[in-house]
Amino acid sequence: MNHNRLISLHPLLQVLFVFTLVTGCDRLGYLYGANNSMIIAGERVNDSPLIAFLNSQKGLKTRERLVIDCARGKGLSCFMAGKHFGGGVNGTSVDLKKAYRHYRLACQNGTKEGCIMREFMKFTGKGVDINRKSALRGLELYCDEKVEMGCERLGSAYLRKGPYQDHKKAMKYLQKSCTMGYIHGCAVLGRLYLMDTATAQKKLRYVGWLKKSCDQGYSVSCNYLGVMSMDGNGMPQSYSRALMFFKHACNQGSDYGCLNLSYFFRNGIFVKKDNRKSYALVEKSCEMHNPESCTYAAWHKTLHLGVNGKSAEGLKELREICSSFKFGLGCTMLGYVYRFGAGVEKNRSKAVSLYRRGCTYHDSEGCAALGSAFLEGMGVSQDISSALVYYKRACSMHNRDACAEEAFIMARTGGGQWKRKARHRLEKLCLKYNGLGCAYLAYMYEAGWGAAKNGNSAYRLYVKSCNLREGKACYRLGRLYEMGTIVPVDVRTAMNYYVRSCDLHHSKACVALGDFLQARSQIGAAKEAYKFACFREDKVGCYKLGILFEDGTGLEYNPKGAKAAYNIACQEGHSKSCQRLKRLKAVLESEQVRSY
Questions:
Q1: Is 551 exposed, middle or buried (0-12, 13-18, 19+ CB in 10 A)?
Q2: Contact 176, 187 (CB under 8 A)
């Protein structure tokens, strides 16, 4: 079945398609920093080929001008040229030897920052022979002279693994640089919360340092604060506060700040859903040479999300990002396109192949999608062991939802010891405000897996999970209020939870909502709820939608719509839909004969 047949079912389904997929991979943006390379499971992944492709020639001209000015004895130009060569700024090819040479020239021409970077490169052994002892003495000299950058680099040197690693000294010098007003030093201090097991009171100090550097215009710190607010790590969990920090970060020029802000507009979190704004934000971030944002921009184009008439262009860009630049997120997103047949022939096997490539290229969502495919038998034979392997791999890349899925598989398939182990893992995830972890933990308390049954604990966890925008939890709350288990029967509250869950893309809730509405003779509204479920390939939702179209109860008789709905449900293995589809085809053929 191709995409056109889906569109015939409802003119807005192409737009609704986006909401089905976006939650699976939107949260990637804020998991990484703003560097062009990242550490995943101890391995450095560099996306410099894509960066080079995105960069313009403007930066090259800037570098050439800096080199010329450096030759004329301008120390600051030498320092900036060193930054270009050392960090690959604006398309410059990374050349650490040239970077070291320009930092040395900057120092010789009176720019102390050049001296500091020269010493730091001697400490790391990049671009020059390593000499840690001499480098530390040099950095201490500049820190004693109250050069803020000297204290920050000295602290960063003591953070690095090796014989001189000393966290106490690192904290001492980083605090000194932050106290002197060096915002990068404050930011490094703030980032330490990620690796620190400090007390809550100590973490508040880290937050204070990040806020200080954010207030002084350091956009990276503002983005980190947004991440912390969203995850409830180091400060109370708050989407509204995260939105504020991401706005601040984006306005100050943070590429990841803009990318994370686009997530809020795309999903309507504390702002009105606005696909155009979401697209504009990822485009802005892409212009800052952020490969992840450029991938999302191509995704928007492919799905007509906030931009029209560029579907072919977006699809071409996704293919290029995946094939030519081997950027995992592009492969995963392209897999979703083939999984649901958005502008291409639907092909689940090809989708699985693309998920596999995404996972190979270190995209956690690709590994998680592959795990889901094996778990559900979607495009591959069902294989729980393989699902567990890929969820575990995604979890090692810090994908918390994948960690929750891995733990829940352990709980479902293992004995008492595995269930208890899974419960402990889910408890840790829930404490870190992972909605799926809270939902699965609630289910374990409700079912009595790995612990005694505890309805009150299950209910509280479902509420927490639902408030963290986990559709499965909102659905379970709806069921609890509908059935009167744990809580008294309350039809209105149950319906409200089904609405929230359906809006969060949980198809079972859309079906339950449709049943509620149909029982109250609100057939038009029930049809829309079933459509949402059917578009997410819920076979029961498609079956009930087909019945509404075929019977014409409260609606206009629509045999073609019924045929399309039954076709989806039949392909998903719903036997009654297959029977109705066969009968309906015979009716339509006979009607065509009579018409002729």
A1: exposed
A2: no
Q: What is the DSSP string of 373-442?
A: HHHHTSSS---HHHHHHHHHHHHHTT-HHHHHHHHHHHHHHS-HHHHHHHHHHHHHHHHTT-HHHHHHHH
Q: What is the CA radius of gyration of the chain?
A: 28
Residue 222: what residue type?
C
Structure tokens at 350: 């090809």
CB within 8 Å of 200: residues ≥ 6 apart: none
Helix ranges (H only) for 468-504 are: 471-483, 491-503
Per-residue pLDDT reduced to its tens digit, 414-435: 888 999 999 999 999 999 899 9
Query: How far are the Cα atoms of 95, 178, 192 from residue 135, in angstroms, in the given order?
Result: 21, 21, 23
For the whole model, what pTM was predicted? 0.75
- Please say whether the dihedral angle defined by the alpha carbons of residues 435, 330, 378 and 546, taken in this order, is positive or negative: positive
Query: What is the per-residue pLDDT across 360-411, written as a single tens digit (0 to 9) for each?
Result: 999 999 999 999 999 999 999 999 999 999 999 999 998 999 999 999 999 9
What DSSP designation does 558 have? -
Is the Cβ–Cβ distance between 223 and 34 less than 8 Å?
Answer: yes
Task: State the first-to-last Cα distance of the chain, in angstroms, to the nearest integer.
Answer: 27
- Alpha-carbon distance of 34 to 29, in angstroms, equals 10
- CA torsion, points 356, 361, 362, 365, in degrees to nearest 10? -40
Backbone angles phi, psi at 72, to 5 degrees: -90, 5
As given in the structure block, the two tokens for residue 492 are 């209105």
Task: Let me know: does 366 contact 355? Beta carbons within 8 Å.
Answer: yes
SS3 track for 114-162: HHHHHHHHHHHCCCCCCCHHHHHHHHHHHHHCCCHHHHHHHHHHHHCCC
Residue 534 token pair: 């059917």
CA neighbours closer than 13 Å in the CB half-sphere of residue 530: 29
